[in-house]
């Protein structure tokens, strides 16, 4: 099917584990034009233009510039970093989308997006999605029911190298693990083929094979050829350990530390596996072994 109207993508210049750039690339590979929002003109924005995207500079909280950026758009992809400010950004975006005549928005979300979430960002994400829905624009939330493989490198690489350990607030129960590129493939299907989702307003893609933290540590041990163990620590201890990482890694924030540690500490039931990604995209998500061997999990 030939698409003449661009799809609008927020988050195309995102950093760690960000799906936006992968969504842009996948859409362009399908010869679907893309208009991508970037906050500043930098190398990441230039890279999107080299891929073939139309890049517009603006901020999610600048409603007037958003209206101009969304002019002529029918479908948009909305994502936001694991950081504060999403409610204001969603309100501005929803208002601009309604004014510009946008018909449909696909939101990259997370399973903890509920009004009773233990995480302040989970509660904020839920409210942001409510605001977009209230605007009258058709909204589909992709509430990813899993943990990103990329988080192993982000949160644990230094301690794996130094202590041969994975320390976090997760108990040793099965959890869905997913790669950013598999989530991006799912998002592209949601953007291009809304008929696959019917009248659903939220879906919860997971993985067919959950792994416990001990299983993750064992797979990493096999990959590195050295023993790596997992140990559960308290929410406050993990929060403080993540905060330490912010001193050396701009991808991590105080909000992220609060969110991830709270969700992990309050997760008491195993994740239910599902085949939704394979059902929608036709290709199953990568396994833990795939993620290690392909370099999705960067440990060496």
Strand content: 15-25%
Poorly predicted parts: none
Strands of the biggest beta sheet: in what spatial order? 3-2-1-4-5-6-10
SS summary, helix count: 12
CATH topology annotation of the largest domain: Rossmann fold
Assign an overall shape: globular
Structurally, the number of domains stands at 2
Class per helix and strand makeup:
alpha/beta
Considering the protein shown, what is the CATH homologous superfamily of the largest domain? NAD(P)-binding Rossmann-like Domain
Give the CA-CA distance, first to last residue: 42 Å
Number of strands: 11
Query: For the record, what CATH class of the largest domain applies?
Result: Alpha Beta
Under the CATH scheme, the architecture of the largest domain is 3-Layer(aba) Sandwich
- Mean pLDDT comes to 94
Helical fraction: 40-55%
- Report the radius of gyration as a whole number of Å: 19 Å
Note the run of SSEs as H and E: EHEHEHEHEHEEHEEHEHEHHHH
Largest sheet: 7 strands, parallel
What topology emerges from the helices and strands here?
Layout: E1 7-10, H1 20-29, E2 34-38, H2 43-51, E3 54-57, H3 63-69, E4 75-78, H4 86-100, E5 104-110, H5 120-134, E6 138-144, E7 147-148, H6 150-163, E8 165-168, E9 177-178, H7 180-192, E10 202-203, H8 213-224, E11 229-232, H9 235-245, H10 254-266, H11 276-281, H12 288-294
Parallel strand pairs: 1-2, 1-4, 2-3, 4-5, 5-6, 6-10, 7-9, 8-11
Helix pairs in contact: 1-7, 3-4, 4-5, 8-12, 9-10
